[in-house]
Design a protein that fits this description.
Structural class: alpha/beta
Radius of gyration: 23 Å
Number of helices: 9
Strand content: 25-35%
CATH topology of the largest domain: Rossmann fold
Shape: globular
Bound molecules: S-adenosylmethionine
CATH class of the largest domain: Alpha Beta
Helix content: 25-40%
Distance between the termini: 63 Å
Low-confidence stretches: none
CATH superfamily of the largest domain: Vaccinia Virus protein VP39
Length: about 400
């Protein structure tokens, strides 16, 4: 049955919210104030999911309405930035003691910004998953990707038209060089023959079959080597914007000993190493720790150390007394054990880099008895999606 509804708000995933008989309905890709005709596609006890019945078009993408990759590309960029600021404000007022009246968000380029993509492949079709399902949306070109990845996507599409046994492709692009990571049951030789002259690094089913094992990138005058399994920020321009914010905080705080937790390839550690006596990084992915150590040598840095393992375990074995802790966890935020550790450690400053305002707000609330929120800034690392990055400074409360 078709229903006509008015969008009265947004949720934190960029979906429009309407009410039908006082029950909340979430409608992907619907704009605040808009009247839309919808069909209910899922009905739960407390809410429903609706799908708009009309055809929604955006200039940058023919797959927009069905594709799950972007959620807010139908808003103007100013509206997107406003939406992101309001979302963070709402989350903070709901889950913390803070009302964020004025909030700054740093914009980035809206298109061709992504340096990494993961494509699912089914027989001769490659693409992203549909909104709210695992159905494949075949893609020829995604305009969020950088131009080198777009060119390689076209080659990949022509390859799978003939070789139909690949299941997954990851492409990384750093400073003009490409890494292609493929999975499936195709012959290794056909993959090597087709791609080895186009990409610098070619992996198949977890093995390097051609080229070099890692890519290199310059960020704020330092060099970084990035291996296959290492995390690296995905917005070409946003990378330095986030790190500049962290460097500025570290400079202002006059830090001595810093822990960089969830340090990945050591990017933050190495970039702030000029402004501290010692930086100690902890990271759970082996490739990333190897990169961090190689990157230390590559940049002739002598005051950093890196440890492999789960942050909440490794941190108990360190013998330093840090004055500043940097946290840059995955979307799930930091563990309960680490919260307990930070509450008892009473470190002067915590710089929390987060890609998920919900877990950020949860963790700030859990740390609230000993740490207060001093500042927060947002960087729009992911235009056209509901995602964003934030850089927050927490300070130790005075003990009376
Ligand atoms: C958002 S990334 C940040 C990486 C790095 N700070 C950067 O800017 O490139 C989060 C990192 O945390 C690592 N990680 C996830 N869970 C972890 C854990 N329990 N202990 C240590 N590292 C972890 C991931 O492998 C990933 O490299």
């Amino acid at each position: 049955m078709m229903l006509s509804v008015k969008i009265i708000d947004y949720d934190h995933q960029g979906r429009g919210i309407a009410k039908v008989d006082s029950k909340v309905v979430f409608i992907p890709k619907a704009k605040l104030g808009e009247e839309v005709s919808i069909k209910l596609v899922k009905e739960k006890k407390n809410y429903s999911i609706g799908r708009r019945c009309d055809t929604l078009k955006v200039k940058y993408c023919p797959y927009y309405q069905a594709c799950g990759g972007c959620q807010i590309g139908h808003l103007t960029y100013d509206e997107q930035l406003e939406y992101k600021k309001n979302t963070v404000k709402n989350i903070f007022s709901k889950y913390t003691n803070y009302n964020l009246d004025s909030l700054e968000i740093i914009p980035t380029k809206c298109y061709n910004y992504r340096n990494k993509v993961t494509f699912h492949i089914k027989e001769d079709k490659l693409g992203y998953y549909e909104e709210e399902t695992n159905n494949l949306i075949p893609i020829d070109k995604c305009n969020l990707l950088d131009s080198d990845i777009i060119t390689l996507t076209a080659s990949l599409n022509s390859f799978i038209k003939v070789h139909k046994k690949l299941t997954k492709a990851i492409i990384k692009s750093l400073d003009g060089k490409l890494m292609l990571i493929l999975e499936g049951k195709e012959s290794k030789e056909s993959i090597k023959e087709f791609f080895s002259s186009t990409v610098s690094s070619l992996y198949y089913n977890n093995k390097l079959i051609s080229g070099v094992p890692s890519l290199m990138i310059d960020v704020l005058s330092k060099k970084f080597m990035v291996r296959k399994d290492s995390f690296f920020q995905i917005n070409k321009e946003g990378i330095s914007l986030i790190y500049k914010e962290v460097i500025n905080l570290v400079k202002e705080l006059n830090c001595n000993i810093i822990y960089d937790l969830y340090c990945g390839t050591g990017t933050i550690s190495l970039l702030i190493s000029d402004y501290a006596k010692k930086v100690i990084g902890i990271e759970v992915v082996e490739d990333a720790v190897r990169d961090a150590k190689s990157n230390t040598k590559l940049n002739n840095i002598t005051n950093t150390e890196f440890y492999l393992g789960d942050v909440s375990k490794v941190i108990n074995n360190l013998d330093y007394t840090p004055d500043t802790i940097i946290l840059d966890p995955p979307r799930s935020g930091i563990s309960k054990d680490l919260i307990e550790f930070l509450l008892s450690l009473k470190v002067k400053n915590i710089i929390y880099v987060s890609c998920n305002p919900l877990t950020l707000a949860r963790d700030i609330n859990l740390l609230d008895s000993n740490y207060f929120l001093k500042s927060i800034k947002l960087v729009d690392e992911f235009p056209n999606t509901y995602h964003l990055e934030s850089i927050t400074l927490l300070n130790l409360r005075n003990e009376k």
